[in-house]
Amino acid sequence: MSTQYNHLSTEERVTIMVMLFQRQTLRAIAALLGRHPSTISREIKRNPQQPHYDAIQATSRAQQLRHAPRRQRRLSPDSELFQVVVEMLRIGWSPQQIARRLRSIWPGQSERHVSHETIYLAIYAYPRGELKRQLISYLRQADGKRPKRTQSNVRRERYPAHLSIHLRPPEVADRLVPGHWESDLIMGANNRSAVATMVERTSRYVILAKLEAPTAEAAAEAIVREMSRMAPSLLKTMTHDQGSEMARHAEITARTGMKIYFADPHSPWQRGSNENTNGLLRQYLPKGTDLSLVTQARLDEIADLLNTRPRQTLGWKFPVEVLVDHLQLSATNKLETIN
């Protein structure tokens, strides 16, 4: 085994920064990079920028210790900032999300701010080759639409009227109180496999559940299994479409405490957050994927990526940040009430 030591590269430092943002452990970072955990630990301790590890500053410091640093253009292909942008594109962020997040990460440091137009230009101006094709592939498809399920032209309401979306508590529509969810299934190849998607309306926090089969029994079991991991205070209501996969909705309510409501037939806009999330999921689970081959662990990874992605509708915060803020505020209010 070679004892030769190689310094951390810019790409490795960017990976460290992004994975720390995702709250990954040092051992997980080390395993991905093929480094010893102590190497990652020392790197972070050597660069104790607050409130987060800064890949750009860490790389700059390392260069200063070895050579005189060379001034880089803001988003040139050989710059550290470009590597940060590429890594964020790789994990599924859009140029607009990246541009806004850079301002949040480095407020007041305009030399590290770029517009989303600049990111697009940098990608399309990149020299021809495999890397350019890879960069373009990271961009989302603007014309992607979720296909309709196989069904008859006329679909009647199949659930009781007292469970209609129009009878939900008013607080659901206001999106001010967390704990109200929208749900759906995305279907795999030939409709033979499925994944349940649940989105919390206030924070847009996502939970994904693997189904053992595309049946009502499997859907109930998967939804109960994954939703039971959440705090009871976050299990108030869930709104689904008129699909037959929710035939065992009473069982879900009995086991989780969530009351299930149903949208009107052919009205996907009544569950807009869920429909939008299903579109985002197709970046990771393209049409025609055999979802029976996708593990729950992989679904959890995808959910983590979506929950740590800045969202414009949330003021460019992460869904997990918004959810935690609500929980902390709720806990504070309860303590004040008790006192």
TrEMBL record:
<feature type="domain" description="Integrase catalytic">
    <location>
        <begin position="174"/>
        <end position="327"/>
    </location>
</feature>
<comment type="similarity">
    <text>Belongs to the transposase IS30 family.</text>
</comment>
<dbReference type="InterPro" id="IPR036397">
    <property type="entry name" value="RNaseH_sf"/>
</dbReference>
<dbReference type="Pfam" id="PF00665">
    <property type="entry name" value="rve"/>
</dbReference>
<dbReference type="GO" id="GO:0015074">
    <property type="term" value="P:DNA integration"/>
</dbReference>
<dbReference type="InterPro" id="IPR012337">
    <property type="entry name" value="RNaseH-like_sf"/>
</dbReference>
<dbReference type="InterPro" id="IPR025246">
    <property type="entry name" value="IS30-like_HTH"/>
</dbReference>
<keyword id="KW-0238">DNA-binding</keyword>
<comment type="function">
    <text>Required for the transposition of the insertion element.</text>
</comment>
<dbReference type="InterPro" id="IPR001598">
    <property type="entry name" value="Transposase_IS30_CS"/>
</dbReference>
<dbReference type="Pfam" id="PF13936">
    <property type="entry name" value="HTH_38"/>
</dbReference>
<protein>
    <submittedName>
        <fullName>IS30 family transposase</fullName>
    </submittedName>
</protein>
<dbReference type="GO" id="GO:0003677">
    <property type="term" value="F:DNA binding"/>
</dbReference>
<dbReference type="InterPro" id="IPR051917">
    <property type="entry name" value="Transposase-Integrase"/>
</dbReference>
<dbReference type="GO" id="GO:0006313">
    <property type="term" value="P:DNA transposition"/>
</dbReference>
<dbReference type="GO" id="GO:0004803">
    <property type="term" value="F:transposase activity"/>
</dbReference>
<dbReference type="InterPro" id="IPR053392">
    <property type="entry name" value="Transposase_IS30-like"/>
</dbReference>
<keyword id="KW-0815">Transposition</keyword>
<keyword id="KW-0233">DNA recombination</keyword>
<dbReference type="InterPro" id="IPR001584">
    <property type="entry name" value="Integrase_cat-core"/>
</dbReference>
<dbReference type="GO" id="GO:0005829">
    <property type="term" value="C:cytosol"/>
</dbReference>
